[in-house]
């Protein structure tokens, strides 16, 4: 077992990476190894998909599988080894199918099909035991002794970024939004990886290509969310329970939440959001359901305590799931790509078992004191008041913008992000997104002439909104984004944050502070190359007060 895809990876003097089970996240060795095999096979699917596309066969089902399959391997998504055995079998079938389609189409055009190698020809074994014996040969760090950690790290940067892209693409696809341009580019990048690249500069350039692809995918997801559920509106969300039966829905998938709301209509059950589902409360179509009662709890790492206390069933629509405690393992459900051994999985869109569980469980005995936070500052909202914001900057009422967002996690070094938000001066605005905001989104920030000082933009993928807003401000002031009084402090944990970070780098945005650590796969050589060859800033967070002062002196 070797995995270093997330911020929680083991960092020991002997090496960097979770090398023995369970990984810090709870992933066992078999699951980690099977995820590596699946990822390898998906590159093989992409090898043929790309070539099939070139001869006129663009097969959406194949790309559906590529994105879904990669999503299942993301941190804190799926821990069920048996599920990966099935996905490996499915990947092989899909690869053989698209191979056939490619070869037929090529022959019809009178050209000889290419003979491919690498993941395109990898034959997974039939038994779990043999599969696990194959895993070291296709692991992320296979051949590190010969290739070196820089080559492995650069490849990791690309594939981990692609996992993030895949998650966002999947959320858009379930809403019926897909793009041939995105599919083609994803196939190209995975095909590139299948060629076992070794040129560091070339791979770093390709990683920025992942960032550019992620921009398109985040935009696609934004369009999907907005056209399906309406544009986010400023919304006061209740964050305390109401008496009655209850269901808690966590993760990022708004489509799943919609299904649950629809099926629980008029059943006397309150539906609450949790974690990254909080922004759902700001979408008109979703908040129109009177039984969407608000948001309970905070970021993913608090779930064992919060879920134990919740008096109803819990539904995980995407990451981040962590080992369910015994007190709630029989009332937590997983959907889509998510899985945990022994946890009930719903894959047919029928939430009857969840509804039955909600009715059988006690629910909340009484109303709690009404507590609220304000959300809904997506780009539609913010651009709608752009004139007011620009005027406030011109008059000096707003001196600086901070974007403090990303993932949350366990590391105490993450207090940095709370300290920055809490100590940002009164004439500055803090924009936030992702689950990292739970560290400070109940704090009192006040407002500047009616503009709230804390603006919750949405989920991590709503980084797209933040980029749109920054672009609009730059246009209003006739300058570049890097010339704006804007500082970005990005908290990362998993591979979606990697994709977002690559997007910001690809846009040439300078001065981003990343933390709590730099990714383990970014070796000193890679960091140095990104800085010198590509003129990118790759700065680790420092001390909060010092970083704040430095940001403000550049205002
Ligand atoms: Fe948080 Fe976990 Fe959003 Fe990440 S709920 S760390 O997956 O994607 O942010
Ligand atoms: Fe370790 Fe993170 Fe990989 Fe889990 S996902 S095994 S914590 S590096």
TrEMBL record:
Keywords, ordered alphabetically: 4Fe-4S, Cytoplasm, Iron, Iron-sulfur, Metal-binding, Oxidoreductase
Any GO CC annotation of this UniProt entry: cytoplasm
UniProt-listed SUPFAM superfamilies: Prismane protein-like
GO MF entries: 4 iron, 4 sulfur cluster binding; hydroxylamine reductase activity; metal ion binding; peroxidase activity
Entry superkingdom: Bacteria
EC number: 1.7.99.1
Binding site for hybrid [4Fe-2O-2S] cluster: 252, 276, 320, 407, 435, 460, 494, 496
Cofactor(s) required, per the database record: [4Fe-4S] cluster; hybrid [4Fe-2O-2S] cluster
Modified residues (Cysteine persulfide): 407
Matches recorded under InterPro entries: HCP/CODH, Hydroxylam_reduct, Prismane-like_a/b-sand, Prismane-like_sf, Prismane_a-bundle
Cofactor note (record): Binds 1 [4Fe-4S] cluster.
Top EC group: oxidoreductase
Residues involved in [4Fe-4S] cluster binding: 3, 6, 18, 25
GO biological process annotation, one example: response to hydrogen peroxide
Catalysis performed (reactions): A + NH4(+) + H2O = hydroxylamine + AH2 + H(+)
Subcellular location: Cytoplasm
Main localization of the protein described in the UniProt heading: cytoplasm
Role: Catalyzes the reduction of hydroxylamine to form NH(3) and H(2)O.
NCBIfam families: hybrid_clust (TIGR01703), PRK05290.1 (NF003658)
Family: Belongs to the HCP family.
Protein's name according to its UniProt entry: Hydroxylamine reductase
Originating organism: Acidithiobacillus ferrivorans
Phylogenetic placement of the source organism: Bacteria, Pseudomonadati, Pseudomonadota, Acidithiobacillia, Acidithiobacillales
């Amino acid at each position: 077992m070797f995995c270093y895809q997330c911020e929680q990876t083991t960092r020991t003097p002997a090496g960097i990476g979770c090398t023995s089970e369970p990984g810090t996240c709870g992933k066992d060795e078999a699951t980690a190894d099977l995820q590596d095999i699946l990822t390898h096979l998906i590159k093989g699917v992409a090898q043929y998909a790309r070539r099939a596309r070139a001869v006129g066969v663009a097969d959406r089902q194949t790309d559906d599988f590529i994105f879904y399959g990669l999503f299942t391997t993301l941190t804190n998504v799926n821990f069920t080894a048996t599920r990966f055995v099935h996905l490996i079998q499915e990947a092989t079938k899909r690869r053989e199918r698209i191979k056939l389609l490619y070869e037929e189409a090529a022959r019809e055009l009178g050209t000889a099909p290419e003979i491919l190698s690498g993941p395109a020809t990898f034959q997974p074994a039939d038994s779990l035991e043999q599969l696990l014996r194959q895993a070291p040969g296709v692991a992320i760090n296979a051949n590190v002794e010969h290739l070196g950690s820089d080559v492995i790290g650069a490849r990791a940067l690309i594939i981990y970024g692609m996992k993030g892209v895949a998650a966002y693409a999947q959320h858009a696809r379930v809403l019926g939004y897909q793009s041939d341009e995105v599919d083609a580019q994803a196939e190209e990048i995975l095909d590139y990886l299948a060629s076992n690249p070794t040129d560091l500069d070339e791979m770093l350039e390709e990683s920025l290509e992942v960032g550019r692809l992620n921009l398109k995918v985040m935009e696609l997801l934004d369009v999907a969310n907005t056209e399906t559920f309406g544009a986010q509106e400023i919304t006061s969300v209740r964050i305390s329970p109401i008496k009655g039966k209850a269901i808690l829905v966590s993760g990022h998938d708004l489509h799943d939440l919609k299904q649950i709301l629809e099926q629980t209509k008029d059943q006397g059950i309150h539906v609450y959001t949790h974690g990254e589902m909080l922004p759902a409360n700001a979408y008109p179509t979703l908040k129109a359901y009177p039984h969407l009662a608000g948001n309970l709890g905070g970021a993913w790492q608090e779930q064992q305590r919060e879920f134990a206390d919740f008096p109803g069933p819990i539904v995980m629509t995407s990451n981040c799931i962590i080992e369910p405690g015994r007190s709630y393992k029989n009332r937590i459900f997983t959907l889509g790509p998510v899985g945990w051994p022994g946890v009930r999985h719903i894959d047919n869109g029928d939430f009857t078992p969840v509804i039955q569980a909600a009715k059988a469980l006690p629910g909340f005995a009484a109303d709690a004191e009404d507590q609220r936070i304000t959300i809904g500052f997506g780009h539609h909202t913010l651009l709608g008041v752009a004139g007011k914001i620009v005027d406030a900057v011109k008059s000096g009422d707003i001196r600086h913008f901070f974007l403090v967002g990303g993932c949350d996690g366990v590391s105490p070094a993450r207090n940095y992000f709370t300290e920055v938000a809490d100590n940002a001066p009164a004439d500055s605005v803090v924009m936030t997104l992702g689950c990292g905001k739970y560290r400070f989104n109940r704090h009192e920030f006040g407002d500047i002439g009616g503009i709230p000082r804390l603006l919750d933009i949405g989920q991590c993928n709503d980084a797209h909104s933040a980029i749109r807003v920054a672009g609009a401000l730059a246009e209003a002031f006739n300058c570049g984004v890097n010339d704006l009084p804007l500082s970005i402090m990005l908290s990362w944990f998993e591979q979606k944050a990697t994709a977002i970070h690559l997007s910001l780098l690809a846009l040439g945005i300078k001065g981003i502070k990343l933390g709590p650590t730099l990714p383990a796969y970014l070796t000193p050589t890679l960091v140095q190359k990104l800085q010198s060859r590509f003129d990118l800033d790759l700065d680790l967070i420092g001390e909060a007060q010092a970083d704040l002062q430095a940001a403000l002196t550049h205002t």
